[in-house]
Amino acid sequence: MKKKIRVNISNKTKKYKIIRKRLLEFTKNLIKTLKIEDDVDLSIAFVGAETINKINKKFRNVDQPTNVISFNLYEARDSLYNALAGEIIICPYIAELEAKKDSNNFHDYIEFLMIHGLLHIIGYDHNTKTNRTKMENLEEKIFKNTEVKKFILKEVL
Description:
The chain is built from five helices and six strands, in the order ββαβαββαααβ. By secondary structure, it is α/β, with parallel strands linked by helices. It has one domain: Collagenase (Catalytic Domain) (3-Layer(aba) Sandwich), CATH 3.40.390.30. Helix 3 packs across helix 4.
């Protein structure tokens, strides 16, 4: 049976345009790279700083905007449904500020945040030094080896 990959993309920003085909291609490649065998049901949302701040405060009790938040939704699903289910929420505005501050390429950084978010969904975390090192090493390895390197969003002028 062929694995099903369902990706729902939502853009709630006005400043950035999502290039859906490229984002979908990047996401599928990322799933392949991570060797995820289950069906995948993924939601990817791009939101503004105020929205991500509210989400961060509600779910992490941190009252400030962040670059990415992800949720593993598999546990909330029927146990008979054998799929990886999750949501990645990215704030391009915060990501752009951070990329500029650290002299990083904005588009690469968005892709890196996608990798980071998906790793959280499949169970990685950075709550301890050991886990952080393990996750960061895997992020770098995946980022450098990802076959699809395309701009997945652009700024609307």
